[in-house]
Structure formats: C-alpha cells, structure tokens
Amino acid sequence: MSDTPKNPIRVLLIGHPSIVHYGLEMLITNQSPVMQFVGSHADCSSVIPHLDSLTPDVILLDMNPEIEKDVQAILQLIVLTPAKVLIMKWQDSELYDTVILAGAKGILEREARLDTILKAIEKVHEGQLWLNQDYIKKLIGKLSQYDSEKSSTQGENKVDKLTPKEKKIFFTMIDHAGTPAKVIANKLSISESTLRNHLTSIYEKLNVNNKLELWTYVHKHKLKQ
Q1: Which of 38, 46, 181, 222 has the fewest CB atoms lying closer than 10 Å?
Q2: Could you tell me the pTM of the whole model?
C-alpha cells in the first residue's frame, strides 16, 4: 500500500454474491485508515437514490453482462456518480467495452488476487485507468472506428441544438478541459448533480457518450467560444 492519504478512500460495493461481498468488506475494512467501507447494494438501481449520502470515491461493481437491465443501470450510474467505477468481470463480452467507453475506470478479473484488488482501487482513485495495454489498444481502435463512422453521417454542427444554459456549460468545459467537475460547477454557480444532469443532455444532443468523445467532437469541429 502507498502512504496513508489525508482522507480514506471511500469504497462502495455493488452486486457481489454474499460470500464474495463478505470477503471484500473485510479486505477493505482491514485497510483502515487508507480505505473505508461505506456500504453495499444489490444492484445499481437501488444505490442511485443514495449516492449523495454515501459519497463513495470508488465503486467496486460486479457486472453480469447477461442481464441487460443491469447493464443499462450501470451506464446510468456512471453518468450520475462522480465516483470512479471499477468493474469486476464475469466473462468475455463487448458490453465491458461499452461501460469503459461510457466512463468506467477499469476491469478486474473476478479471480484477481487480493493485493491486485487493493492496488486497482488505489490507482483508479488516483485517476488512472486499470486496463492492460492490449485492452487499451483495442478500445482506441474501436473508438477510432466509431469516430470515423460518425464523421460520415454527421456533417452539421450539433452545438446549435443546445439550450443557452447547455451552451454555457459546454464552452466552460472546453475552456477548462481537465478541471474537476466540482470546480466547473462552482464556476457556473450550480451543484455537481445539476452539472451532471446538463452533461447527460449535452452528450445526447451531440451524440457522444463521455468526456473523451466530447473532446474528440470539439477537436474535429474546431470549436471555441
């Protein structure tokens, strides 16, 4: 483990079988004061109303890609929470690519060693991706193909579809690329949750899924305020 942080890493568990949950809870609790276990929920739908009170830093989420409604709830969770989402993988599926491109920060094999789980939690909390190089290369290839397909079908600048408030948020994001959401929200005199709601609408209107695709859109259209 690295040096003890000023504040513990607050970890939330979602969707793990009871015996796995117990082991993970004990693992995280035993890392005090570096980590703090803040709770668990059976699925994403049940946790979304409680995000503001739980305030996790990292969400360790057990994802079964065979349950379609769970995947949709995971995508909603990624949009709504400022926490870093770390996925525990059941099996090979392109749906894991979907959640990573939507903003999840990494994938862990369910058979991962305990020290690997702890290291992954620390790294995603620091802002790093927990993905191997081959997987990253595959995602870049998929994203490049996706951008190419979009370029052939969208000739117009869709920023005109944004409301005046959304345009203000959009151009503030451009002017402060890489700035934390909390700072952006303060500049706009709105809450982080309000900012996330506006970003969801902006992403939909611009036909992008996350900040990475947003910056790609900005660069491609050479946009500035």
Answers
A1: 222
A2: 0.62
